[in-house]
């Protein structure tokens, strides 16, 4: 009888976690625990389904179905399995939403991307053998530990083999001036995080495809105060502009990207190119980028759109700005990509999850609407159903589809620039 009750309690837990992944609460204090409870479930539903089925079989073999609580537990378990199957199906079909967004920008149809089965189903982020990493390059030259970046690039033998087998349909590779470059900025709410922790599936994939990828650390709050964080990111970009050619990259073909707080910083960097206020000591450096690809970013620190509650503004005031919004609104606006939108903004492709409990989808929707009304360049938006914050941390099916948009995005940007100058 005891085992039956244990199975019932376990299956109720399974069902609750699945329901939270399917339809998480997006209000108040529940949003943060909802994210942590639903993140792994929503992004790895197949693993959760397999684990639940195996656990059910073992408990049934041990006698959990000999009494009525066990059968009730089985019913709850089956309901959880159905929900997990819905999540897995949504992940597999996510390429359709990405494709629709790309086509809406004017990109030609490409169909379903080819993703190796193991790549999309084994959540391991080890560096591929064909990729080498250059670690802890000092991009400021001041010896401060946060001013370090890592470079991921194809090993010479792998690059030669890739070039020899390339065809018109292969991902973007080296051009006349070198390989395309991705500058990735990590997230962590502006207070935590490290260049080694995020964006790795995307950088590994792109480096295998011939890109040079850079991921940079920056000073974190509350020790650092805005705009220190943004200046560091722009300084990293200036280093890339001036030095990446020696690593095989093309400084004229840089896409800046990042997730969460990194998505905010990536968008802000892309929209403040050449602003001397945020380039102290390197005012003359060209900090333009070819495009921006922010993931689930925060775009308006003033919260005029009402996407966040008062706790978010209080956090920014206390940790990031060390001043009140009411007393220093100009600084909050200056740090907000929403208020930085301008006609000369580079091409953007923003990606968000509809089930994001940390950055509500109202935030990227409003930003994209503003940018589309302002910029003369293409602005795309991908909103993925049943998708949580930080969804591309794991190399899942959905992540694999999302990161494969970067090649097409760059090709589209470059082809649009060529057409504009013809």
What does the model show?
This protein has helices at residues 2-22, 31-43, 45-61, 68-92, 94-104, 156-164, 200-208, 228-243, 261-271, 310-321, 329-334, 337-340, 362-374, 397-403, 405-421; strands at residues 131-138, 148-154, 179-185, 212-216, 249-259, 291-295, 348-353, 379-384. With 422 residues, it is α/β, with parallel strands linked by helices. Helix 13 links the parallel strand 7 and strand 8. The longest helix has 25 residues, at 68-92. The chain is globular, with a radius of gyration of 23 Å.
**Helical content, roughly?**
40-55%
Which oligomerization state do the chains in this entry correspond to? single chain
Identify the overall geometry.
Answer: globular
The total count of helices amounts to 15
**SS content category:** alpha/beta
Number of strands: 8
**Main beta-sheet annotation:** 8 strands, mixed
Short description:
The protein is of the alpha/beta class and 422 residues long.
Task: Jot down its keywords.
422 residues, alpha/beta, 8-stranded mixed β-sheet, 15 helices
SSE arrangement:
Layout: H1 2-22, H2 31-43, H3 45-61, H4 68-92, H5 94-104, E1 131-138, E2 148-154, H6 156-164, E3 179-185, H7 200-208, E4 212-216, H8 228-243, E5 249-259, H9 261-271, E6 291-295, H10 310-321, H11 329-334, H12 337-340, E7 348-353, H13 362-374, E8 379-384, H14 397-403, H15 405-421
Parallel strand pairs: 3-4, 3-5, 5-6, 6-7, 7-8
Antiparallel strand pairs: 1-2, 2-4
Helix pairs in contact: 1-2, 1-4, 3-4, 8-9
């Amino acid at each position: 009888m005891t085992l039956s009750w244990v199975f019932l309690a376990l299956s109720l837990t399974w069902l609750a976690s699945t329901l939270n992944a399917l339809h998480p609460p997006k209000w108040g204090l529940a949003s943060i625990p909802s994210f942590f409870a639903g993140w792994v479930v929503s992004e790895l539903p197949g693993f959760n389904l397999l684990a639940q089925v195996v656990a059910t079989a073992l408990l049934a073999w041990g006698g959990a179905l000999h009494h009525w609580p066990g059968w009730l537990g089985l019913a709850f378990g089956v309901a959880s399995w159905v929900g997990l199957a819905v999540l897995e199906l949504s992940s597999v079909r996510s390429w359709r939403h990405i494709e629709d967004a790309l086509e809406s920008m004017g990109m030609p149809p490409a169909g379903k991307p080819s993703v190796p089965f193991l790549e999309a189903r084994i959540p391991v982020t080890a560096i591929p053998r064909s990729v080498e990493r250059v670690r802890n390059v000092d991009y400021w030259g001041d010896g401060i530990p946060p001013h370090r970046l890592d470079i991921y690039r194809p090993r010479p033998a792998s690059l030669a083999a890739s070039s020899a087998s390339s065809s018109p349909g292969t991902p973007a590779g080296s051009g006349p001036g070198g390989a395309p470059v991705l500058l990735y900025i990590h997230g962590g709410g502006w207070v935590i995080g490290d260049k080694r922790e995020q964006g790795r599936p995307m950088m590994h994939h792109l480096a295998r495809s011939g890109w040079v990828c850079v991921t940079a650390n920056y000073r974190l709050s509350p020790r650092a105060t805005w705009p220190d964080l943004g200046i560091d990111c722009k300084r990293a970009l200036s280093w890339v502009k001036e030095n990446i050619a020696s690593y095989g990259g093309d400084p004229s073909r840089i896409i800046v990207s990042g997730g969460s707080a990194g998505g905010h910083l990536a968008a802000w960097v892309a929209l403040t190119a050449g602003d001397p206020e945020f380039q102290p000591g390197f005012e003359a450096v060209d900090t333009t980028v070819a495009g921006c690809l922010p993931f689930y970013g925060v775009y308006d620190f003033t919260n005029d759109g009402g996407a966040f509650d008062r706790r978010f503004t209080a956090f920014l005031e206390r940790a990031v700005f060390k001043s009140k919004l009411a007393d220093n609104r100009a600084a909050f606006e200056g740090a907000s990509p929403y208020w930085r939108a301008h006609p000369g903004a580079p091409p953007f492709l923003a990606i968000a999850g509809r089930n994001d409990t940390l950055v509500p989808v109202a935030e990227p929707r409003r930003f994209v609407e503003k940018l589309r009304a302002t910029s003369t360049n293409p602005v795309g938006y991908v909103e993925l159903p049943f998708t949580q914050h930080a969804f591309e941390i794991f190399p899942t099916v959905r992540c694999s589809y999302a990161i494969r948009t970067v090649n097409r995005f760059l090709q589209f940007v470059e082809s649009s620039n060529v057409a504009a100058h013809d």
